[in-house]
Every structure is written in C-alpha cells, then in structure tokens.
Write a structure and sequence with these properties.
five-stranded antiparallel beta sheet; alpha+beta; 225 residues; binds fe (ii) ion; 20% helix
Length: 225
C-alpha cells in the first residue's frame, strides 16, 4: 500500500518509523507509544471480509528497507498457526482488542506450551527475536484488529521471511515468506519438513484454539489429539 493511502495516526506512525529508523525493541516501543495510534484510523484498514480459507486478515501497510508494518484483522474464530518470525530481530504487536495468546518453547522440532493468556486491548507486546514462537487469535465474539511492526537490519525486505510455522495437525514444519495461516495454502509454503515432537497437553490446548477455524472450513477431522 502506498503511504499516500494512509491517514491519521497510522500514517504519522509510519512516517516516524521511516524518519527515525528504530534500531531495536526499546526504540520501536517509544516510537509506537508516541504515535498513540487511534483505533478508528486502524479500523479503516480492516480486512474482516478476508478469504474464509485464510485464517486471519493480513495486510501490509508499509515495507521499508528494514522495517515492515502490517494491519491484521481478526474475525471471531480467526487464529494464526503456531509460528516464529523468520529473520526478525525485533518486533511489536499493538492489540486493539482482547486477544487469545499462546507462547511456546521451541527447540529444533520440539514444541511445548509455555504460557496461555488473554492480552488486553491497548497492550503493546514485544514479539521477537526470530526465536519467539506464539499463536494468537480471536476466541471472542466481536472482531478486532492488531498492528504489527517487525525489523531486521541483518537483511533487507520482509523481516519475517523464512518464518517457521508448526502445523501440528499435518505434522509439517513449514517455511513461509512471513505468513502464519492455519491449514497453509500451498502458494504460501516455500518448503516443509516433517517430524514435530509435541506433548499431548500442548497439542490439545492448541487444537482448542484453532478448532473454530477448522470448523469453518469443514476440516475438524484433522484435529484428533
Ligand atoms: Fe507472530
């Protein structure tokens, strides 16, 4: 999206990111707090009406040489897969609605649930480095949006390129260009390996989070713990 298509506090934030080029998490947080993003400015960019086969709405608002900004839209039941953030060195999510959130410890091909929480609206959460693994979504009954910013100075272009997505239901560790869709459409999959190691409690909790999406696409048959 062209910067000229953005208005209000979202545009001001992106102009500040371009001007100040924050080098890490603390600097990024200061820029975001100062921008005081207004919920209505972000709502104008929503994609709640996204393709129902995609598990959330993902819209790139701006991609600089080292920093990218995305507006994510979460209709009820929308959820990400369990994912990392590729080559991102730092990043932040601004929650404008109460989101279901899971953090995971990942070592190689082994996954374990580390924290289950609801992140309150108005919270800014650091979500990187590249070895930060999580899943998030809307387990409530009203749509909301989140604003995501990722940075990588060790590379140019999308900071989340090379993100690993753990598709527990099909035993695939998928590499993507940054997307973390459930039931990953083939065009977003760069490569994959098999052989995920996961304990039963982690699998059951994850399946409970993602079941509304699989129900929507008629594939709950894949979710047998
Ligand atoms: Fe993420």
């Amino acid at each position: 999206m062209e910067l000229s298509g953005l208005t209000g506090t979202v545009r001001s934030l992106i102009e500040a990111l371009e001007r100040e080029a924050p080098q890490g998490q603390a600097e990024l947080l200061r820029v975001v707090e100062r921008a005081a993003v207004d919920e209505r400015d972000l709502q104008a960019l929503h994609t709640f009406d996204h393709d129902p086969n995609l598990s959330y709405g993902r819209r790139c608002l701006w991609q600089g040489p080292h920093i990218g900004v995305y507006a994510m839209s979460w209709a009820p039941g929308d959820f990400t897969a369990l994912h990392g953030h590729g080559r991102a060195e730092f990043g932040l999510v601004l929650f404008l609605g109460a989101a279901a959130h899971r953090r995971y410890d990942v070592r190689g091909n082994e996954v374990r649930l580390a924290a289950a929480e609801t992140v309150p609206a108005g919270t800014a959460v650091g979500v990187c480095t590249g070895d930060f693994y999580h899943a998030m979504g809307n387990s409530g009954d009203r749509p909301f949006m989140t604003l995501h910013i990722y940075g990588a100075y060790g590379a140019t272009g999308c900071a989340n390129d090379g993100a690993r997505v753990f598709e527990l239901e099909t035993d695939r560790i998928t590499v993507t260009g940054g997307s973390a869709y459930l039931h990953m459409p083939a065009q977003y999959r760069k490569s994959y390996a098999t052989g995920i190691r996961v304990d039963l409690d982690t699998r059951r909790d994850y399946y409970a989070c993602i079941r509304p999406f699989f129900d929507r696409i008629g594939r709950t048959d894949l979710l047998n713990a």
